[in-house]
Amino acid sequence: MFESVSVDTTIEELCTKKELSQFSDYFFTHMTEDVWKRRIGDYGNERCGLLPAIKRIYEVMDENSQVIYDVYPKEEWEKEPDKEQVKLIHMPGDPDKPFVLVCPGGGYAREWVLVEGYPIAQQLNRMGYSAFILIYRTGQKNLLPKPVEDTAAALKFLDANRDKFQIRMEGYAVAGFSAGGHLAAVWGTKEKGYGAYDIHKPGALFLGYPSISTVQFLKDMERASDSERAAAVKYLERIGGENFTKEGLAEYSVEYLMDQSYPPCYLVHSKDDPVVNIEASYLMEEQLKCFKVPHRVRFMEHGGHSFGLGNGTELDGWLADAVSFWEEVR
């Protein structure tokens, strides 16, 4: 089974394996032809730990009768059909521990679950923690606050089923990457996140190259090349709608939403990130210091974007360090 998967396996071949059929829509959501034809190795197998993550998927399937769960009840799909998109993928760890909710990135257009979901979950499992990968709503203009609503619904679902999953809600963490890092960072705010939905504050946030500042993103867009500007415009339209403004985008720009009650935060980013300017993470670090929020940051000179686990880079081992930080502040 797993032995038939290699770095030369294409995403199409991976998705059409009969035994992996339930995961076929959840390696990359809203998959496009360019993704379909690429090899696993093209996505940074060693750096991101892709083959060990796929092996873990096979192990979880062997151990559990169900892995993927609907977050919203089916009766809600009739009123809001896009809620059918929202899923939780359960990657179990040791019982009676807090868990990590993992939010992959993808510019709110899709989710790179293969790169920023399964590998993160696999490493967390190795450390004894259960992980739940959140497939939130994407691919719409004026999308927010739907992904935040999905985060709240997912946590309420987990709370209602904590005995089944053998998890503790107290002290849970949320990990997010790129746009998923923006989502996790918003979830850490009282105004737009956990406080607005009357859910326990997370025990920690793990933020990988998060696009936390929509205002900074707008500044970067205005001085970008034409091709880069087109991609940035689409991203900002998903946050602020077609006629977005700086004032409108500020509603979900995390630096304006933080205060002294913000959760402990672990932040990783690369200085040469061509997609999310590290200035956003510098800004967040300043706010964390200003509000005296427990935090730890790790920045590297070279690593680009979507480095995930960052194996073999200056940030090798960051996730284990983040878990140690989480255990300390808990």
From TrEMBL:
Residues 97-288 form the BD-FAE-like domain. The keyword Magnesium does not apply. One of its GO terms (molecular function) is hydrolase activity. InterPro entries: AB_hydrolase_fold, BD-FAE-like_dom, GDXG_lipolytic_enzyme. Signal peptide: none annotated. This is Acetyl esterase/lipase. Keywords: Hydrolase. The keyword Hydrolase applies.
